[in-house]
Amino acid sequence: MSPTVHANESSSMSQATTPPIAPQKPHSFERHGVTLQDPWHWLRDPGYPKVEDAEILTYLKAENSWFEAQMKPQEPLIETLFQEMKGRIKEDDASVPQKDGDWLYWVEYEQGAQYKKWYRKPVAGGDKVLLLDETELAKDAEYFRLGAFSVSPDGNLLAYAVDDDGSERFDARIKDLTTGEILPDVIPGTLSSLIWRADSGALLYGLANDNWRTDNARLHVLGTPVESDVELYKEADEGFRVDIGTTSSEKYIVIATGDNETSEIRLVPADNPQAEPILIRPRQKGVEYAVEERDGTLFIHANDEHINFRLATATIASPAEWTTLIAGSDEFYMTDVTAFKDFYVVEGRRAGLDQIEIRDYADPSKVTPITFPEASYSASLGDNPEFDMTVLRLAYESMVTPDTVYDYDVASAKLTVLKVQEVPSGYNAADYVTERVMIAARDGTQVPVSVIYRKGFKQDGSAPLHLYAYGAYGYSIPPNFSVTRLSMVDRGFAYAIAHIRGGDDLGRQWYLDGKLAKRTNTFNDFVDVAKGLIERGYTSKGRVTASGGSAGGELMGAIVNSDPELWGAVVAHVPFVDVLATMLDGSLPLTPGEWPEWGNPITDKAAFDLIRSYSPYDNVGAHAYPPMLVTAGLNDPRVTYWEPAKWVAKLRVTKTDDNILLLKTNMGAGHGGKSGRFDSLKETAEEFAFLLWQMDMTGK
To answer: Annotated active-site positions, please?
Structure first.
């Protein structure tokens, strides 16, 4: 039996030969007549977001020591993978400059640098000017993330926000770009964009409240105390969050509030944000909309009449009176609309593939689609900061085509390649094959799967295959390019992305069919895709590795409970696995806003029963589990560290196999793991080394 870890034991277990066992302490609670036992509840520090409990920290450090001890023999492989991945990255790289007003803006990475430098130079000609040096800002921090970055309309000031511990509470600062001076104004605890008033004399922002919810929009006048900032809007619904932005015309500031299924928008003039807000339309449960503006006409992208959204127009004077401009369609899923001075752009997906259409204001029937050569790809508008654009910046990639930046001339409909992601160590797209296959789920629904493998791959069941998915919140996973993925594919893996329900890959209904009462479709789709790929000879049972993070980590927890024999190894990053307890606790940062996604088990017995039936932590069983690597972030505000910690603790004493189970907690980071580009790459190398180790492929 492995030793129990107590608070007074040494936190250093570098020579650990057995995994730590977290003590069980009686804890129970009752809901809907059901008494639930949770003997690892103590792993939640009551002082969170501060985690100072000595016993908890000792246990997490012991798990980290166990992780390090078990992975130590793989260090040569980790280093090999890391150097491979690093060799595919152009270290001294730069983005394509883009004009915004009188300046061209871009970012650069220097050789060996973890973080970016932000530059600009005059359009009329002149030397480049360093605006912000992330490497300098991050030099004394274990974690660094730049949030908002916003240059004032007059071009003289920069507002930016920094998170230095992964808690996603950003401190906003202002830099005078004419002198290089950092102004004394500091706004702590922001969680929003930073939007300038038209005269460059004030900023709009939102603060994270005690529960890490942005329920406000505030105005800070430069040079005045933060304590005197004006609250422009306060949201009363604890499940709604407030976002701040601008219309493309920059005439109006957008104050948007909503949850995962309902939205409500107000506009205020950019030159007078303290004016009476213009409410576009009062919130209606299940109706989401977004707003653009051109010459007093509003363009409203909304799902009020069709599940796949329509585009309507209204006037500033009568913003709630909507007239359909483009009707909703069963075939075309309209995902975004951007208004420019002389045309507007509609983005969406048809049969799951990205579409970009140029539309004419004067002639609604005139539609110019931008076409791309591949059968499976990802394409979108890129950085287009000006309202009066004649050439659009586009982003394009596929599973075999590196990230490509295009300019599209609207008048001539000509695409010009500006930059193709360079792979310094060498890459030949002709060496790889990508496919899009359809696999029937158990209810007959056809689920699309994007697959990449190296030419010469034998589809006879002998090869390993890695399967990835997310499947929640209506987030689609595009068939994109990845330099890290090549380290698996070049070693003989096929790599597949399952476009399962819960994402919106095939339209809004695809998302709705994986949430609330239909949540288990997501898990079933993933399992059935794995079985379908096995049937088609891509791999065989036990040769499938799988990974997912956050809500995708919940997916990993569900599929190892339901079909453990399918998987050769599983990686669950910051997994949302204690679903029932989290959804029963309205005091947690995300919970009230999550009820539209998962259901409210506090008030709804059916939601309670359903969540209880699939919540990975609640359904850990006394059976064999595949080898597993689980990650967590101590400062993670999205999936709190105790969810993966409790899950691993329960798995350790419940599962009947002796397969490896590892928990790695980043003690100075949050939801996204380590922040530097190379530190992050090292963690990917660790993940891949774990998978190769468990598939007995460390020699490749």
So the answer is: 550, 636, 671
